[in-house]
């Protein structure tokens, strides 16, 4: 499900069962990420699938990437793997107006 930044943030803040998932590469992640985000690189193919399969299917996942394209694909894959609640951040981190963490 695609959500505008406003809806994504509002839903995330109200969700006690939320996990933020960054599906960018490790290098992109290290350039700055949304606080508390878990990084699983969608470009790793089967390794991405394995890591997604290990996630708690009862949680709600708030997924983002650089622009919203990879995270949309990630949400689709997550749905296919039995994770019903995966929310894509439209515009990705490029359009993100909130705080980011720089390791």
TrEMBL record:
Transferase listed as a keyword: yes
Start and end residues of each Rhodanese domain: 14-101
Superkingdom per UniProt: Bacteria
SMART domains, sorted: RHOD (SM00450)
Entries under InterPro entries matching the protein: GlpE_sulfurtransferase, Rhodanese-like_dom, Rhodanese-like_dom_sf
Record's keyword terms, sorted: Nucleotidyltransferase, Transferase
Keyword hit for Oxidoreductase: no
Single annotated GO MF: nucleotidyltransferase activity
Pfam families: Rhodanese (PF00581)
Entry protein name: Adenylyltransferase/sulfurtransferase MoeZ
Name of the gene this protein is made from: moeZ_3
């Amino acid at each position: 499900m695609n959500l505008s930044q406003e809806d994504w943030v509002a839903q995330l803040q109200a969700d006690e069962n939320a996990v933020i998932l960054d599906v960018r590469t490790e290098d992109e992640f290290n350039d700055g990420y949304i606080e508390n985000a878990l990084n699983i690189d969608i470009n790793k193919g089967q390794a991405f699938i394995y890591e997604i399969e290990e996630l708690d299917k009862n949680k709600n996942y708030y997924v983002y990437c650089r622009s919203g394209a990879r995270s949309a694909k990630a949400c689709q894959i997550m749905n296919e793997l039995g994770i019903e609640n995966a929310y894509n951040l439209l515009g990705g981190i490029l359009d993100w107006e909130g705080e980011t963490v720089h390791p």
